[in-house]
Amino acid sequence: MIHLKKTGLIVTLSSVLLLSACSGNSGGESKGETKDGKKTVVVSVMMKDRFLESAVQKFEEKHSDIHIELKEYKAAPKAVEGGMGVEAISLGDVEKYVQSVTTQVISGKGADLMLMNELPQDKFVGKKLLVNLYDLMAKDSSFDRNTLYPNILKASQDGDGLYVMPISFTLDLVRGNTELLKKANISVDKNKPWNWNEYKDVGKKMKQQGYQGFDNLNSTELLFDYIEDNYGQLVDKGKPNFDSDLFRNMMKEIKSMYDDGLANEGLSGLSSEFNKMAFQMAGIYGTEEILTLPEYLEYYQKPSASGKKNGVPFKFIYSLALNSKSNVQPEAWAFIKFLLSDEMQTSPNLTGLPMNKGAADQNFNEVLQKIKSGTLEKYMLSDEAKAKKRIEEVKKLISEADVRKSSDMKVLMIASEEFKSYMSGQKSAEEVSKLIQNRVKTYLNE
């Protein structure tokens, strides 16, 4: 996914690219060859990062007979080397990466392991290009799937099979200014699902009193939300349904939110308007993060764009799939297992919430110890009891996460490109929906 940083907050612009881990310039073709007595496992990544590089180093120290080769599509520039390098990645880079890796995998080549965040998972699964990881788990007595969050694992399935292993994830939430909502005499239950239509009522009430609803809500990101929440209807068994009232009404609803001043593309958090903002988009990208928020900000469920009141949505940050054509599957599986180990799941370089339940609990306990010792930077809660309460609230949200936000990256990009002309008033909803329909149809038939 592409994540854009705004005043220190990481804001997800869709299920585009969060990390920077994806492929080599050629897509990272599998080698599987024996080199100096070692088996080589090629991992396709867009850009190397500290977590993956440290994982490779530590894994190879423990497995002298296996070499892990990270093939990156785009090298990190000097200015952000060693970090995530997010600012250097464009949607064009993502598109080229997706096309490169997809072409190789469909042709029977490609890397042994692939970071799947941006890749067309449905297409790969439908063409039987990925290994069902449940089959490998069943044969491996050393692997205990009970160490992982069962709800995240189940929601990550395609049918009854697990073809992509989540390594870490983020809860797709919003932060609400509880003090401001109380001042405006508006009640929103942070523990219950709601939808964008319900938010419109809240936004109108906020506006009437001189406040703002959302102010860091990018219209493209909102479009992605609408598409992802309705993906099964918009792309049904490989057939697009964008030339429909269903999709045209989605576009109209999004545009009306901005036209009516209920959402703002800008970031008023940089100005004196910050205290007038009721909600801001925000996932949870780490255990310390939840305790560095001011007391007046709390996590609320994100409005759904499907009209249904679903559970807590989540998105993958690191997620790996194993190429069914790989001839080093046991070695590749060993690396996946290592990424899920306590050692790597508690790594300070891991972005997001760990998939390993024990590692997550350890991280939360370490944060509490930092509070007790006074070493947690930017700690914003007034006492330890409130910190424990917030941790328990987040643990509850994690246990309720059962809606995986995903779709085909290429479909999202096509829609976003054409959607801009509708938002600017250059083209009608009918014209744009037909353009998207034709382009998506062409892509899906490739």
The CATH superfamily of the domain at 2-170 and 315-354 is identified as Periplasmic binding protein-like II
Any guess at the CATH architecture of the domain at 2-170 and 315-354? 3-Layer(aba) Sandwich
The shape is: globular
CATH class of the domain at 2-170 and 315-354: Alpha Beta
Helix content: 25-40%
Organism: Paenibacillus filicis
Pfam family, one: SBP_bac_1
Protein name: ABC transporter substrate-binding protein
List keywords for this structure.
446 residues; alpha/beta; D-Maltodextrin-Binding Protein, domain 2; 11-stranded mixed β-sheet; two-stranded antiparallel ribbon; 16 helices; globular
What features would you describe in this structure?
- The protein is of the alpha/beta class and 446 residues long.
- It has a domain at 2-170 and 315-354: D-Maltodextrin-Binding Protein, domain 2, CATH 3.40.190.
- 40% of the residues lie in helices and 18% in strands.
- It contains 16 helices and 15 strands.
- 46% of the residues are buried.
Write the layout of secondary structure elements.
Blueprint: E1 2-6, E2 9-13, E3 34-35, E4 38-45, H1 50-62, E5 66-72, H2 91-106, E6 113-115, H3 121-126, H4 133-139, H5 150-155, E7 165-177, H6 178-183, H7 196-208, E8 212-214, H8 219-229, H9 231-234, E9 235-236, E10 239-240, H10 245-259, E11 277-283, E12 297-301, E13 312-322, H11 329-339, H12 342-345, E14 353-354, H13 357-373, H14 384-400, E15 401-404, H15 409-423, H16 429-444
Parallel strand pairs: 4-5, 4-6, 8-11, 13-15
Antiparallel strand pairs: 1-2, 3-4, 6-13, 7-11, 7-12, 7-13, 7-14, 9-10
Helix pairs in contact: 8-10, 8-15, 13-14, 15-16
Protein name: ABC transporter substrate-binding protein
Organism: Paenibacillus filicis
